[in-house]
Amino acid sequence: MSIRSEFHQLARSAHGSHDTVKTRHQILDRFADFLRDENIQLRHVQNIRTKDIQRYCNAQLEHGKGVRTIQNELASIRYALREAGRAEFADSEAMGNKSLGISGASREGTNRALTRDEYQQARDALEARESYAERAALGLMYTLGLRTKESIMSDKSLDDWGRQLERGEPVRVLYGTKGDRPRDVHIHDREAALEAVQEAKGAMHEGHLITGDAGTLKSAYDRLQNELREVLPDDISPHSARYSFAQSQVNHYRAEGYSDREAFAQASIDLGHGAGRWRYIRHVYDQRENT
DNA sequence: GACTTATCATTGGGCTCCCG
DNA sequence: CGGGAGCCCAATGATAAGTC
């Protein structure tokens, strides 16, 4: 059995969501490519040495890959090693990111928030294209702070959200959340949020808001992503709408007299992270120049 | 810091329309 | 009626952003 097929088996036998397993599989496959191309002749995962890993890291750096990316790849490789019974090796100091020369990457976000004008322009453009469902999805992302996937899967929740908003309750996001963690979002601009929910309800078609040709979640996702990219500025991604929401939450909490730190913490909770993530929110979401 | 899961960018397949 | 330009979109690959 080749080292490649060993990798494949290891990638699959391990745990994780569908996407995670798939990614791990790809990473290990590329690592196997590297070993082959470099003519490093290893028959088994058992025989992998630190220097092989080191060479891989160097080559990736050389190739111009980001440090964060390589760190992520190494996480998968270590996982495979552990799965193959080499936990001690995988967790050894020599196999740490620091020793391999891939530590210390910046974790600050690179996206910026969508401004109100840009939001309005994107909505107009979507209307002109008669992409009403996509326009509604963008509205939900902007007023409720939803991720793209959450907005696609919002169809099941729109009625509930409408009711919750009417009563002044937090909005409960259940479907499509990262890691399947539900969250309650405190909405300050209730009117705008209600409007977005109504709009989305009206844009639904056969029980769904967004549908791709293939009828899968993935195709719906790609369609929305593509459509939004065409009407948003080049340096803006759909996720930027969520940044805007985060900023507006922070501003509202501040206006209510919260300290900066508490405002960040509250906004963090609204985005579905823990309160302890306030520092992160400050870095990633609250880029002052756009507030 | 390490590991998992999401978003984003790029690629390329396949459709349509037009020309010869 | 074949083939290629141009477009649209889904698949694939890369990377950012989550949690533990």
UniProtKB/TrEMBL annotation:
GO terms for molecular function: DNA binding. GO terms for biological process: DNA integration; DNA recombination. Coiled coil: none annotated. Residues 109-291 form the Tyr recombinase domain. Keywords: DNA integration, DNA recombination, DNA-binding. Residues 1-21 are annotated as: Disordered. This is Tyrosine recombinase XerC. It comes from Acidithiobacillus thiooxidans ATCC 19377.
